[in-house]
Design goal:
about 45% helix, five-stranded antiparallel β-sheet, two-stranded antiparallel sheet, alpha+beta
Length: about 375
């Protein structure tokens, strides 16, 4: 189904949650939802629906299950024509194949967890998949404020490339691809953030001391009769000792973004290392490492959680700290990451102690008894 093209461009696969026709603005763009676009056929995974019903004994809390649906690629909104849509992309200015319409679509994709495209008759270039939205369901209903003048800061932070990687991670069903793309997104953002921060503990004085020590080390090797070939191989690598490790950089980044405790208990660093081990296993061997926990089954659960965490960390940083979005959904996602490092629970599931079915049944039992999802 397509909307009228006169003065508007189609937006495909945008899950806006508007219950009736209306409009909202994203930066300089006015987006409209007509009556015929409200009931869209989105891809969805199997899900639980929590509600209530009257029984002979009174009002009861109920849980029903909806099957997965593959969904379809279709128009769900329209954006009013604007000169910015055809101007060069701000996020990826060196890419001649993308423009302002791309910037709008990739930001909408980041916020909704779905592959969104702007343009009449646009075709998907990523799989149509069940999305996990970052923003709350009310975000587009309450006239979201996004300052488009912040996009140059996103470009400087490497967010354009990171959002491309996150989209690949979100829409791919292969866990290895999810971890690899999520890691690539986070690495790029973390590297840019760290170089601009003042958190590097390796001061000029420390580097000078390390340099002096390396010269003494070289002299010791020569005195010991080590071959010049080996010395020549070793020495260029020694300056890297005076740089923060990848794990230290990530820890500083997560703390600054409110996703890792300032004073972690003894378990939090272990959970952060899981993330690092999985990233390294993909980078160095191209496969998922399945011996990070006591059993392969638990390792698989940890890997699944890490695949989602990598995406969410990048999405939260871009949405909250670069786009300055204030939204309950973003705040809850941020707290979910923090909770994982604090006690090993991710969105209520104890990643080590529970498989998904055990968690699912605990969630159902809790809701039926108490009427809430506060596990």
């Amino acid at each position: 189904m397509s909307v009228e093209k006169n003065g508007f461009r189609d937006i495909f696969n945008l899950e806006h949650h508007l219950p009736s026709e209306g409009e909202f603005t994203i930066g300089p763009y006015r987006i409209s939802v007509s009556k015929g676009l409200i009931e869209a056929d989105f891809a969805r995974s199997q899900r639980l629906v929590f509600g209530s019903a009257f029984r002979s004994s009174g009002l009861m809390n109920t849980v029903t299950e909806e099957p997965a649906t593959s969904g379809s690629w279709g128009v769900t909104a329209a954006v009013a024509e604007h000169e910015g849509l055809d101007q060069a992309s701000v996020l990826l200015p060196d890419n001649p194949w993308v423009n302002g319409a791309y910037d709008l679509s990739v930001i909408l994709s980041l916020l909704t967890g779905r592959h969104v495209r702007v343009g009449n008759d646009a075709e998907p270039y990523l799989p149509i998949s069940a999305g996990l939205g970052l923003t709350s369901k009310n975000f587009f209903r309450t006239h979201p404020a996004i300052d488009w003048s912040l996009l140059p800061a996103l470009r400087a932070a490497g967010a354009g490339e990171a959002m491309e990687a996150v989209m690949l991670a979100m829409t791919n069903s292969n866990m290895g691809v999810k971890v690899a793309m999520g890691s690539a997104a986070l690495d790029g953002l973390n590297t840019r953030w760290f170089s601009a921060s003042d958190t590097n503990r390796y001061t000029r004085e420390v580097k000078e001391q390390v340099k002096a020590a390396s010269l003494a080390f070289k002299a010791h090797l020569e005195t010991a009769g080590i071959s010049q070939d080996l010395i020549a191989d070793m020495m260029p690598r020694l300056p890297n000792v005076a740089n923060e490790s990848a794990l230290a950089k990530l820890t500083a980044f997560l703390k600054a973004c409110g996703m890792y405790p300032e004073n972690p208990n003894e378990e939090a660093p272990k959970r952060l290392k899981w993330l690092n081990v999985l990233r390294n296993s993909i980078a160095h061997s191209g496969s998922i490492k399945f011996d990070i926990a006591e059993t392969p089954e638990v390792s698989f659960q940890v890997a699944g959680a890490i695949a989602l965490l990598l995406q969410d960390i990048s999405r939260i940083y871009i949405a909250k700290y670069l786009l300055k979005i204030e939204d309950r959904g973003v705040d809850e996602a941020q707290q979910a990451v923090m909770t994982f490092f604090l006690n090993g629970k991710y969105n209520g599931q104890d990643i080590i102690a529970e498989d998904y079915e055990t968690y699912r049944q605990r969630l159902i039992d809790h809701y039926e008894e108490f009427g809430n999802l506060d596990l």
